[in-house]
From TrEMBL:
Protein name as annotated: Putative hemolysin
Top-level taxon in the UniProt lineage: Bacteria
PANTHER family per record: HEMOLYSIN-RELATED, UPF0053 PROTEIN SLL0260
Primary location class: membrane
Gene Ontology molecular functions: flavin adenine dinucleotide binding
UniProt keyword annotations, A-Z: CBS domain, Membrane, Repeat, Transmembrane, Transmembrane helix
GO cellular component: plasma membrane
Pfam families reported for this sequence: CBS, CNNM, CorC_HlyC
Membrane-crossing segments per the record: 6-26, 75-94, 106-126, 147-170
Stretches assigned to the CBS domain: 286-342
Keyword Membrane attached: yes
Organism, scientific name: Pectinatus cerevisiiphilus
Family under the similarity heading: Belongs to the UPF0053 family.
Localization, UniProt: Membrane
């Protein structure tokens, strides 16, 4: 073999070893990473966090693509090493042991063993050890590249999958189907079990609520900022104690002048206990540091945050760091089992039926409860507006903040603004109109 060709093959082997090492590093980083460690490296509001979590939750397709690349590298390394080494091994063995037959076959086996040694040591074991030191760091760094590799390999994977299915069909075997059970299938099974009496209706409602909760975010379940009873540290202990006594809240945000200068949270039980002991001179010592979560965080991840930090509440923030509201464990539980009224809450006051075809509705009435009560599947602008209350729906439908007595008609329902609380719709009169002939 000519020297230039040999040098070219040596360079190719080195490149292939590097590529295979990098692929094994990515594969190890993906299989060894954990989401709880991920949150210590980058904030959950970072876009890379969501993509990396998606990879960790469903790595199968990407791992299949990496296996395809790795096997290709192993094959190419073995072939290149064989082309270079076999001629030299044949000459060496002929001079060393000229009487031994099958020189070429022995050289072939030795070249395979040498290629295997290179691939396993430099192309597999070494990068795997490196990746295991900091798997999450490597995964975050190369998440986008992993998706690119997957997109490139996808056509080949599909072709191989179809070919394998055809071979199975020719041999008389049925290709494996998709064994994943969809959400709708589970709901159908539960509904059937309820009809047969195996499950109680309350149990079915609870399971439906859990499925619905998986689509909810912290923003949709939180108590909005405008509805929070908060404390101002400049008001002093006596004023704040009066606020705590007048409400049924267990947790209070405390700020300086406003909630944009948030200092933390205070538990009502701590303040009341201190008041009994005459130890309420300084509120600072009762302030706890809250955890902050983005408005887009999914409900189940909020629960994970609660467990990791051993808390029952979190402050919801927007992309600029401003306070949007407060979400508690009670809010999430109510999403599953229904509202748990406090002594001062009057659930019936949120919607009052005046006669057969008209209702007086609070602007803060939950939009999902409203849809369920009126048998509505979907409201206009529901996907893009992200409103959570009937008042929010009306503002979205008007396209501006309406005034008292303004109304809109949708389907056979007439929505009239009955009362405004500054810029918020406070009360709404809903009238069912006769169906058009």
């Amino acid at each position: 073999m000519d020297v230039p060709e040999t040098n070219l093959l040596l360079i190719l082997i080195l490149v292939l070893l590097f590529c295979n090492s990098f692929i094994i590093l990515l594969r190890t980083a993906l299989t060894e990473s954990h989401k709880n460690q991920l949150e210590k490296i980058i904030p959950s509001s970072d876009k890379r966090f969501e993509k990396t979590c998606d990879l960790i939750d469903d790595p199968d397709d990407v791992l299949l693509a990496l296996m395809l690349y790795s096997n290709s590298c192993h094959f190419a390394i073995g072939l290149s090493v064989g082309i270079i080494i076999i001629p030299y091994l044949c000459l060496f063995l002929q001079e060393l042991v000229p009487f031994v037959p099958y020189i070429y076959e022995i050289s072939f086996v030795l070249s395979i063993l040498f290629a295997l040694f290179l691939s396993v040591l430099l192309g597999t074991l070494l990068p795997r050890k490196i990746a295991q030191i900091r798997p999450e760091h490597y995964l975050i760094k190369y998440t986008r590249f992993l998706f690119v590799l997957y997109d490139i390999a996808m056509p080949i994977i599909n072709m191989l999958s179809h070919t394998a299915n055809m071979i199975l069909m020719i041999t008389g075997s049925n290709p494996p189907g998709d064994e994943n059970v969809t959400e709708d299938e589970v709901k159908d099974l539960i509904e059937r079990a309820t009809e047969e009496g195996t499950l109680e209706k309350a149990e079915q409602d609870m399971v439906d609520s859990i499925f619905h909760m998986s689509d909810q975010t912290a923003y949709s379940l939180m108590t909005p900022r405008t509805q929070i009873n908060w404390l101002d540290i400049k008001d002093g202990p006596d004023v704040n104690l009066k606020i705590i006594k007048e409400t049924s809240d267990d947790i209070f945000l405390i700020g300086e002048n406003n909630l944009d200068n948030l200092l933390g949270i205070i538990y009502a039980k701590d303040i009341l206990r201190a008041a009994i002991d005459n130890d309420l001179q300084d509120l600072q010592k009762f302030i706890k540091k809250p955890i902050f979560i983005p408005r887009s965080m999914e409900t189940f991840r909020v629960l994970d945050k609660f467990r990791q930090n051993n808390v029952n509440e979190a402050v919801v923030t927007d992309e600029y760091g401003g306070v949007l509201g407060l979400i508690t464990l009670k809010d999430i539980i109510e999403e599953i089992i229904g509202d748990v009224p406090s002594p001062q809450e009057d659930e019936s006051a949120q919607i009052i039926q005046r006669d057969e075809n008209s209702w007086y509705v609070d602007g803060l009435y939950d939009i999902d409860d409203f849809k369920e009560k009126f048998g509505i599947d979907r409201l206009p602008g529901e996907e893009r507006a992200h409103y959570q209350t009937v008042g929010g729906f009306l503002v979205s439908y008007f396209g501006y903040i309406p005034k008292t007595a303004e109304y809109k008609i949708w389907n056979n329902l007439r929505f009239e603004v009955a009362d405004m609380d500054r810029t918020r719709i406070d009360k709404i009169m809903i009238t069912k109109l006769p169906a058009a002939k």
